[in-house]
Protein backbone atom coordinates (compact mmCIF):
# COMPACT_ATOMS: atom_id res chain seq x y z
CA UNK A 1 0.00 0.00 0.00
CA UNK A 2 2.83 2.37 0.90
CA UNK A 3 4.62 1.49 -2.32
CA UNK A 4 1.44 2.14 -4.27
CA UNK A 5 1.00 5.52 -2.58
CA UNK A 6 4.60 6.58 -3.20
CA UNK A 7 4.33 5.52 -6.83
CA UNK A 8 1.20 7.58 -7.34
CA UNK A 9 2.62 10.60 -5.54
CA UNK A 10 5.77 10.40 -7.65
CA UNK A 11 3.71 10.11 -10.83
CA UNK A 12 1.57 13.10 -9.82
CA UNK A 13 4.67 15.18 -9.06
CA UNK A 14 6.19 14.34 -12.44
CA UNK A 15 2.97 15.21 -14.23
CA UNK A 16 2.76 18.49 -12.34
CA UNK A 17 6.34 19.31 -13.39
CA UNK A 18 5.64 18.42 -17.03
CA UNK A 19 2.36 20.30 -16.93
CA UNK A 20 4.02 23.41 -15.54
CA UNK A 21 6.82 23.34 -18.13
CA UNK A 22 4.37 22.73 -20.97
CA UNK A 23 2.07 25.44 -19.65
CA UNK A 24 4.95 27.90 -19.39
CA UNK A 25 6.15 27.29 -22.95
CA UNK A 26 2.57 27.45 -24.25
CA UNK A 27 2.30 30.99 -22.86
CA UNK A 28 4.36 32.10 -25.86
CA UNK A 29 2.68 29.90 -28.47
CA UNK A 30 -0.05 30.96 -30.89
CA UNK A 31 -1.93 27.92 -32.16
CA UNK A 32 -2.68 28.14 -35.92
CA UNK A 33 -6.42 27.52 -35.51
CA UNK A 34 -8.62 29.38 -38.05
CA UNK A 35 -11.59 31.34 -36.75
CA UNK A 36 -14.67 32.37 -38.84
CA UNK A 37 -14.12 36.13 -38.96
CA UNK A 38 -17.61 37.23 -40.21
CA UNK A 39 -19.35 35.10 -37.58
CA UNK A 40 -17.11 36.37 -34.78
CA UNK A 41 -17.76 39.97 -35.85
CA UNK A 42 -21.49 39.25 -35.78
CA UNK A 43 -21.34 37.60 -32.33
CA UNK A 44 -19.35 40.55 -30.97
CA UNK A 45 -21.97 42.92 -32.36
CA UNK A 46 -24.69 40.85 -30.65
CA UNK A 47 -22.78 41.13 -27.37
CA UNK A 48 -22.57 44.92 -27.47
CA UNK A 49 -25.90 45.90 -29.05
CA UNK A 50 -28.18 45.15 -26.06
CA UNK A 51 -26.22 47.59 -23.91
CA UNK A 52 -26.82 50.33 -26.48
CA UNK A 53 -30.54 49.50 -26.46
CA UNK A 54 -30.54 49.63 -22.66
CA UNK A 55 -28.78 53.00 -22.79
CA UNK A 56 -31.30 54.44 -25.26
CA UNK A 57 -34.30 53.15 -23.27
CA UNK A 58 -32.86 54.14 -19.90
CA UNK A 59 -32.64 50.49 -18.75
CA UNK A 60 -28.89 50.10 -18.46
CA UNK A 61 -28.98 47.10 -16.07
CA UNK A 62 -31.44 45.27 -18.31
CA UNK A 63 -29.18 46.02 -21.28
CA UNK A 64 -26.19 44.49 -19.49
CA UNK A 65 -28.30 41.45 -18.59
CA UNK A 66 -29.27 41.03 -22.24
CA UNK A 67 -25.56 41.20 -23.12
CA UNK A 68 -25.00 38.20 -20.84
CA UNK A 69 -27.82 36.37 -22.62
CA UNK A 70 -26.13 37.12 -25.93
CA UNK A 71 -23.15 35.05 -24.76
CA UNK A 72 -25.12 32.14 -26.21
CA UNK A 73 -24.09 33.32 -29.68
CA UNK A 74 -20.45 32.60 -28.85
CA UNK A 75 -21.24 28.89 -29.10
CA UNK A 76 -22.05 29.21 -32.81
CA UNK A 77 -18.45 28.99 -34.17
CA UNK A 78 -18.25 25.49 -32.64
CA UNK A 79 -21.33 24.19 -34.49
CA UNK A 80 -21.82 22.93 -38.03
CA UNK A 81 -22.36 25.77 -40.55
CA UNK A 82 -25.97 25.94 -41.66
CA UNK A 83 -27.25 24.27 -38.50
CA UNK A 84 -25.95 26.73 -35.92
CA UNK A 85 -29.22 28.55 -35.27
CA UNK A 86 -31.26 25.35 -34.87
CA UNK A 87 -28.75 24.14 -32.28
CA UNK A 88 -28.80 27.46 -30.43
CA UNK A 89 -32.62 27.38 -30.30
CA UNK A 90 -32.43 24.12 -28.36
CA UNK A 91 -30.05 25.77 -25.89
CA UNK A 92 -32.01 28.97 -25.20
CA UNK A 93 -34.29 27.56 -22.48
CA UNK A 94 -31.60 25.72 -20.46
CA UNK A 95 -29.25 28.68 -20.89
CA UNK A 96 -31.87 31.09 -19.56
CA UNK A 97 -32.82 28.63 -16.81
CA UNK A 98 -29.21 28.65 -15.56
CA UNK A 99 -29.29 32.43 -15.20
CA UNK A 100 -32.80 32.55 -13.71
CA UNK A 101 -32.05 29.86 -11.13
CA UNK A 102 -29.03 31.87 -10.04
CA UNK A 103 -31.20 34.97 -9.67
CA UNK A 104 -33.84 33.14 -7.62
CA UNK A 105 -31.32 31.76 -5.13
CA UNK A 106 -28.82 34.63 -4.92
CA UNK A 107 -29.95 35.92 -1.51
CA UNK A 108 -29.39 32.62 0.37
CA UNK A 109 -25.83 31.28 0.16
CA UNK A 110 -26.52 27.53 0.69
CA UNK A 111 -29.30 27.52 -1.92
CA UNK A 112 -27.14 29.63 -4.23
CA UNK A 113 -24.24 27.19 -3.98
CA UNK A 114 -26.57 24.20 -4.42
CA UNK A 115 -28.13 25.71 -7.54
CA UNK A 116 -24.67 26.36 -8.98
CA UNK A 117 -23.69 22.74 -8.30
CA UNK A 118 -26.86 21.53 -10.02
CA UNK A 119 -26.35 23.74 -13.07
CA UNK A 120 -22.69 22.68 -13.33
CA UNK A 121 -23.51 18.98 -13.02
CA UNK A 122 -26.25 19.00 -15.67
CA UNK A 123 -24.34 21.28 -18.07
CA UNK A 124 -21.09 19.30 -17.85
CA UNK A 125 -22.87 15.95 -18.21
CA UNK A 126 -24.83 17.00 -21.29
CA UNK A 127 -21.83 18.75 -22.85
CA UNK A 128 -19.76 15.56 -22.47
CA UNK A 129 -22.64 13.40 -23.69
CA UNK A 130 -23.13 15.58 -26.79
CA UNK A 131 -19.35 15.83 -27.23
CA UNK A 132 -19.57 19.60 -27.44
CA UNK A 133 -16.43 21.49 -28.31
CA UNK A 134 -15.30 24.41 -26.11
CA UNK A 135 -16.81 26.45 -24.55
CA UNK A 136 -18.96 23.36 -23.84
CA UNK A 137 -20.57 23.78 -20.40
CA UNK A 138 -18.52 26.82 -19.40
CA UNK A 139 -20.94 29.64 -20.32
CA UNK A 140 -23.85 27.86 -18.62
CA UNK A 141 -21.84 27.90 -15.39
CA UNK A 142 -20.58 31.43 -16.00
CA UNK A 143 -24.04 32.97 -16.47
CA UNK A 144 -25.26 31.29 -13.29
CA UNK A 145 -22.29 32.81 -11.45
CA UNK A 146 -22.83 36.26 -12.99
CA UNK A 147 -26.51 36.23 -12.01
CA UNK A 148 -25.40 36.32 -8.38
CA UNK A 149 -23.91 39.76 -8.90
CA UNK A 150 -27.30 41.17 -10.02
CA UNK A 151 -28.80 42.31 -6.75
CA UNK A 152 -32.42 42.85 -7.75
CA UNK A 153 -35.70 42.70 -5.88
CA UNK A 154 -37.84 39.58 -6.25
CA UNK A 155 -40.39 41.56 -8.23
CA UNK A 156 -37.73 42.49 -10.81
CA UNK A 157 -36.54 38.93 -11.43
CA UNK A 158 -39.07 38.19 -14.23
CA UNK A 159 -38.04 41.40 -16.02
CA UNK A 160 -34.33 40.58 -15.77
CA UNK A 161 -34.93 36.98 -16.85
CA UNK A 162 -36.90 38.33 -19.83
CA UNK A 163 -34.01 40.64 -20.74
CA UNK A 164 -31.65 37.67 -20.61
CA UNK A 165 -33.87 35.57 -22.90
CA UNK A 166 -34.18 38.55 -25.26
CA UNK A 167 -30.39 38.74 -25.56
CA UNK A 168 -30.17 35.02 -26.37
CA UNK A 169 -32.98 35.27 -28.94
CA UNK A 170 -31.32 38.26 -30.59
CA UNK A 171 -27.99 36.44 -30.92
CA UNK A 172 -29.72 33.32 -32.29
CA UNK A 173 -31.65 35.37 -34.85
CA UNK A 174 -28.48 37.05 -36.06
CA UNK A 175 -26.69 33.71 -36.40
CA UNK A 176 -29.66 32.37 -38.40
CA UNK A 177 -29.50 35.41 -40.72
CA UNK A 178 -25.74 34.93 -41.12
CA UNK A 179 -26.11 31.28 -42.14
CA UNK A 180 -29.02 31.98 -44.51
CA UNK A 181 -27.00 34.63 -46.35
CA UNK A 182 -23.51 33.11 -46.31
CA UNK A 183 -23.82 29.33 -46.03
CA UNK A 184 -24.75 28.07 -49.50
CA UNK A 185 -25.20 25.30 -50.35
CA UNK A 186 -26.22 23.96 -46.97
CA UNK A 187 -23.99 20.99 -46.03
CA UNK A 188 -25.60 17.71 -44.95
CA UNK A 189 -26.34 17.44 -41.25
CA UNK A 190 -23.69 15.29 -39.54
CA UNK A 191 -24.96 11.99 -38.19
CA UNK A 192 -24.83 11.50 -34.45
CA UNK A 193 -24.57 7.91 -33.18
CA UNK A 194 -27.24 6.67 -30.81
CA UNK A 195 -25.71 6.23 -27.37
CA UNK A 196 -27.47 5.53 -24.07
CA UNK A 197 -28.05 8.60 -21.94
CA UNK A 198 -26.62 6.94 -18.83
CA UNK A 199 -22.81 7.05 -18.99
CA UNK A 200 -21.03 6.30 -15.68
CA UNK A 201 -17.80 7.98 -16.78
CA UNK A 202 -19.58 11.18 -17.71
CA UNK A 203 -21.58 11.08 -14.49
CA UNK A 204 -18.36 10.86 -12.47
CA UNK A 205 -16.73 13.82 -14.19
CA UNK A 206 -19.91 15.93 -14.02
CA UNK A 207 -20.49 15.10 -10.35
CA UNK A 208 -16.95 16.03 -9.35
CA UNK A 209 -17.11 19.29 -11.32
CA UNK A 210 -20.55 20.15 -9.91
CA UNK A 211 -19.51 19.56 -6.30
CA UNK A 212 -16.26 21.49 -6.76
CA UNK A 213 -17.88 24.48 -8.48
CA UNK A 214 -20.72 24.79 -5.96
CA UNK A 215 -18.53 23.97 -2.97
CA UNK A 216 -15.88 26.50 -3.93
CA UNK A 217 -18.55 29.21 -4.22
CA UNK A 218 -20.02 28.30 -0.83
CA UNK A 219 -16.64 28.32 0.91
CA UNK A 220 -15.66 31.59 -0.79
CA UNK A 221 -18.93 33.15 0.38
CA UNK A 222 -18.47 31.84 3.92
CA UNK A 223 -14.95 33.27 3.96
CA UNK A 224 -16.34 36.71 3.14
CA UNK A 225 -14.56 37.01 -0.20
CA UNK A 226 -15.67 40.04 -2.19
CA UNK A 227 -17.39 38.94 -5.43
CA UNK A 228 -16.89 35.18 -4.79
CA UNK A 229 -18.13 34.33 -8.29
CA UNK A 230 -14.52 34.60 -9.51
CA UNK A 231 -13.66 31.38 -7.65
CA UNK A 232 -16.20 28.99 -9.29
CA UNK A 233 -15.67 30.58 -12.72
CA UNK A 234 -11.97 29.75 -12.41
CA UNK A 235 -12.82 26.19 -11.32
CA UNK A 236 -15.09 25.72 -14.34
CA UNK A 237 -12.51 27.19 -16.73
CA UNK A 238 -9.66 24.98 -15.48
CA UNK A 239 -11.75 21.79 -15.41
CA UNK A 240 -12.61 22.17 -19.09
CA UNK A 241 -9.45 20.19 -19.73
CA UNK A 242 -9.37 16.41 -20.07
CA UNK A 243 -6.00 15.60 -18.49
CA UNK A 244 -3.98 16.69 -15.49
CA UNK A 245 -1.55 18.37 -17.90
CA UNK A 246 -4.46 20.43 -19.26
CA UNK A 247 -5.50 21.40 -15.72
CA UNK A 248 -2.00 22.58 -14.82
CA UNK A 249 -1.67 24.50 -18.07
CA UNK A 250 -5.06 26.21 -17.79
CA UNK A 251 -4.38 27.09 -14.14
CA UNK A 252 -1.13 28.79 -15.09
CA UNK A 253 -2.70 30.58 -18.07
CA UNK A 254 -5.72 31.68 -16.03
CA UNK A 255 -3.58 33.07 -13.21
CA UNK A 256 -1.17 35.03 -15.40
CA UNK A 257 -3.88 36.21 -17.80
CA UNK A 258 -6.13 37.39 -14.96
CA UNK A 259 -3.31 39.33 -13.32
CA UNK A 260 -2.57 41.19 -16.55
CA UNK A 261 -6.29 41.52 -17.23
CA UNK A 262 -6.89 43.24 -13.89
CA UNK A 263 -4.19 45.77 -14.79
CA UNK A 264 -6.04 46.39 -18.06
CA UNK A 265 -9.43 46.59 -16.29
CA UNK A 266 -8.12 48.98 -13.66
CA UNK A 267 -6.66 51.23 -16.34
CA UNK A 268 -9.93 51.20 -18.30
CA UNK A 269 -12.20 51.98 -15.38
CA UNK A 270 -9.90 54.54 -13.83
CA UNK A 271 -10.92 56.70 -16.81
CA UNK A 272 -14.62 56.36 -15.79
CA UNK A 273 -15.80 55.36 -19.28
CA UNK A 274 -19.25 56.49 -20.34
CA UNK A 275 -21.93 53.91 -21.26
CA UNK A 276 -21.30 54.60 -24.95
CA UNK A 277 -17.61 53.78 -24.46
CA UNK A 278 -18.64 50.61 -22.61
CA UNK A 279 -20.63 49.53 -25.67
CA UNK A 280 -17.54 49.91 -27.84
CA UNK A 281 -15.43 48.14 -25.21
CA UNK A 282 -17.81 45.17 -25.12
CA UNK A 283 -17.54 44.80 -28.89
CA UNK A 284 -13.74 45.10 -28.96
CA UNK A 285 -13.22 42.79 -25.98
CA UNK A 286 -15.63 40.12 -27.25
CA UNK A 287 -14.05 40.18 -30.72
CA UNK A 288 -10.51 40.01 -29.34
CA UNK A 289 -11.37 37.15 -27.00
CA UNK A 290 -12.99 35.08 -29.74
CA UNK A 291 -10.01 35.61 -32.03
CA UNK A 292 -7.55 34.57 -29.32
CA UNK A 293 -9.36 31.94 -27.25
CA UNK A 294 -8.32 28.99 -29.42
CA UNK A 295 -4.88 30.41 -30.17
CA UNK A 296 -3.57 31.35 -26.72
CA UNK A 297 -5.73 30.97 -23.60
CA UNK A 298 -3.53 33.14 -21.37
CA UNK A 299 -3.66 36.02 -23.84
CA UNK A 300 -7.44 35.64 -24.13
CA UNK A 301 -7.76 35.78 -20.32
CA UNK A 302 -6.20 39.24 -20.37
CA UNK A 303 -9.32 40.46 -22.20
CA UNK A 304 -11.78 38.07 -20.55
CA UNK A 305 -11.15 39.74 -17.18
CA UNK A 306 -12.37 43.28 -18.02
CA UNK A 307 -15.28 41.82 -20.04
CA UNK A 308 -16.41 39.80 -17.02
CA UNK A 309 -16.06 42.85 -14.77
CA UNK A 310 -18.39 44.83 -17.06
CA UNK A 311 -21.00 42.06 -17.32
CA UNK A 312 -20.94 41.43 -13.57
CA UNK A 313 -21.81 45.05 -12.72
CA UNK A 314 -18.61 45.23 -10.64
CA UNK A 315 -16.62 47.90 -12.44
CA UNK A 316 -13.67 48.74 -10.17
CA UNK A 317 -14.30 52.44 -9.66
CA UNK A 318 -12.89 53.97 -6.51
CA UNK A 319 -10.56 51.10 -5.64
CA UNK A 320 -6.79 51.05 -5.89
CA UNK A 321 -5.20 48.90 -8.56
CA UNK A 322 -3.18 47.05 -5.95
CA UNK A 323 -6.28 46.10 -3.94
CA UNK A 324 -8.16 44.90 -7.01
CA UNK A 325 -5.31 42.84 -8.41
CA UNK A 326 -4.59 41.17 -5.07
CA UNK A 327 -8.29 40.38 -4.56
CA UNK A 328 -8.83 38.90 -8.02
CA UNK A 329 -5.53 37.00 -8.02
CA UNK A 330 -6.43 35.53 -4.63
CA UNK A 331 -9.80 34.41 -6.00
CA UNK A 332 -8.21 32.88 -9.10
CA UNK A 333 -5.52 31.07 -7.13
CA UNK A 334 -8.14 29.68 -4.75
CA UNK A 335 -10.26 28.55 -7.68
CA UNK A 336 -7.26 26.98 -9.43
CA UNK A 337 -6.37 25.12 -6.22
CA UNK A 338 -9.91 23.70 -5.96
CA UNK A 339 -9.78 22.70 -9.63
CA UNK A 340 -6.44 20.92 -9.30
CA UNK A 341 -7.73 19.05 -6.24
CA UNK A 342 -10.76 17.98 -8.28
CA UNK A 343 -8.41 16.90 -11.07
CA UNK A 344 -6.54 14.65 -8.64
CA UNK A 345 -9.84 13.14 -7.50
CA UNK A 346 -10.77 12.44 -11.13
CA UNK A 347 -7.38 10.86 -11.67
CA UNK A 348 -7.75 8.30 -8.89
CA UNK A 349 -11.46 7.49 -9.35
CA UNK A 350 -12.04 4.17 -11.15
CA UNK A 351 -14.00 5.13 -14.25
CA UNK A 352 -13.70 4.20 -17.91
CA UNK A 353 -10.36 4.59 -19.65
CA UNK A 354 -11.91 6.62 -22.47
CA UNK A 355 -12.55 9.48 -20.06
CA UNK A 356 -9.82 8.88 -17.52
CA UNK A 357 -7.78 11.93 -16.46
CA UNK A 358 -4.17 11.12 -17.37
Automatic annotation (TrEMBL):
One of its GO terms (cellular component) is membrane. It is a multi-pass membrane protein. Its main location: membrane. The keyword DNA damage does not apply. InterPro entries: Memb_transporter_dom. Signal peptide: none annotated. It is found in: Membrane. Residues 217-341 form the Integral membrane bound transporter domain. Keywords: Membrane, Transmembrane, Transmembrane helix. The chain crosses the membrane at residues 62-80, 111-128, 157-181, 202-220, 260-285, 297-319, 325-349. This is Integral membrane bound transporter domain-containing protein. It comes from the Bacteria.
